[in-house]
Amino acid sequence: MSVLTLRALSKRYGRIHAVDGVNLTSGEGELLAILGPSGSGKSTIMRLVAGLEMPTSGDILIDGKSVLGIPPKDRNVAMVFQSFALYPHMSVRDNILFPLVARKVPKPLRQPKLDQVSRMLGIEDLLDRRPTRLSGGQQQKVALARALVRDPELFVFDEPLSSLDAKIRSQARAELRELHDRTGITMLYVTHDQIEALGLADRIAVINQGRLHQVGTPRELYMDPADLFVAGFVGTPPMNLLPIDDDTIAGLRPEHLRLASTASAAGDYALDLEVTVNQLEYLGSEWLAYGTVHSGLPEQGEPQQVIARLPAGTEPPFSTGDRCRFVGTHQDVRWFDRNTGKRKPAAVGAVA
Amino acid sequence: MNSSTIAPVEHAREEGLLARLGRALDRPQVLVWLMLGPAVLYIIAFVGFPFILAIALSLSDATIGDPSLDRYVGLANFAAVMRQDAFWIALRNSLLITAASIGLLLVLATAASELLVYSFRGKRLFQVLFILPWAMPVSLAAIAWLWLLDSQFSPVDWVLVQLGLLGPGSPLGPFSHLYYLGRPWLGIASLVVADVWRMLPLATIIVLAARLSIPEERFQQARIDGAGFFRILFRITIPALRPMLIVAILFTSLLIIGEMGMVEILTRGAPGHATQVLPYWAYLKGIQSGSLGQGAAIALFLFPFLLVAAVLALRAAYRSPEA
Fold first, then answer.
1. Which residues of chain B does A132 touch, with a Cβ-Cβ cutoff of 8 Å?
2. The complex's ipTM?
């Protein structure tokens, strides 16, 4: 079990700051996800950790020791690419053994390791096959076995689930989590898929345009986003972000935008809105109501759009075109500084 | 029902000549033969017919003076050809030169493709210079080599003398000239070098195409898995290149083994028949000495072997697992 530390890590390609001063420390044996939209620099971080690229400045430490200048073949960092990058001309067995052969592990030690990882991943029957003859899920397991076989200090995943069918993805996610819990190896998991990150990781680092926006548990990220980017990126649909005045934006999760008639805390609301419902979507487990704010917010140029999430258990007491009163409590509303995008302490910018 | 309100579109059948031609061309049977026709004609006229003619000639007693195919002599021409020492030297040289050239080409083309995968300053200029030998006519290239390897004025000799490798008291002997084209083994080596120089661009382009089709992630994965340069080259790159290396071997070896321009200009088979090769020997026998039958027999001698080798090579290339 190892601790990965990124210290003021930066990578520039010409004028582009792919990674811009990222500070991040993993826990021992933690599954740490790096979440960001495409082009955010998350893959560059992963390539820097693996040693495929050299940082422009900053440092990468594994267990407190800098690994800069150590080529990838001498870093004990295992990586699973999105494409799995299996060697097509080798059997599954030779694929899994390749890291041991390349590291000149003595022959008698190889077979027990091969047996161990292939049993752990349940691929004993596939060893003589060619990777091209395997399904996506089987290929992923072979790639995991190849990464595991040499007892890496650190595991790096590059969107390992995104090339799987949607149907087996959630199962593969659970298996990955189980594998992590069983091996206890520190894992860095890079993804653009927040469901994956929220469902899998101990903690998530949200990154955009090379900058780290927030590190926290999935719950912290969802309940207490540190800034407007995280608020708008995490959650589907994302937070309703409503400009209150020149300095303040109010954020409210769709499930916290409640009909006044059903809200519990009567009277004292942070947000109290008159909304015209434009559209209602039934999604099986919930309803989504899309609406336009009429009053309750200061006069703005554009009318604000909001989304409310309602449990599917009961029929919504309104229909498309209705005008309803929606509220958000002080407890649920998050306040952001409109200029810096950062969180503001609660109860500063109450609405008149 | 309001479907009746939409008037059905009348399709007037055009009757002009062009319209009828257009309709004919829409039919696959017509179009296929129109498209394939020129190629089929070309192959029949310039490959099929000469080939059949060569077989007929090799089984007849035709000469330049009497080129009629009126007497069938069975395999007599082949028997006559095989009784000549020059034929066996030419056969050996053809196989040796081709094999040596292929060996060198594989190493150099793989190395060159590794180099050309990366971008570096002056890469475009390098690429242009690199392709030049292939763009140059054989005779012009051969004349350039003739001068480079000249017995009196060879710049190669001059450089060796300046480096102290050639001349009195030097490792390569007391003379100031190596007489590349006048000595049997140096002559063959010179032909190999010239052939490699000429074929390297083609071989490299074939190998480079295969090299560029290997996903970059596979190499990164191998580096992370702990492989060094040579392990990646031999365990990852070359296995993936294998099908296209076979294609490169096939193409360049057929071009080298069937080519006589270099020999004709550089050595004319001399000294004696020491650097003789089959195509040039076939030309000397069949055209210069006038024995069309024997010339055809020499030219056809390798055909069955090459055919089998080509079929096996292509099958091996197709059968290899996904690269």
1. 321-322
2. 0.82
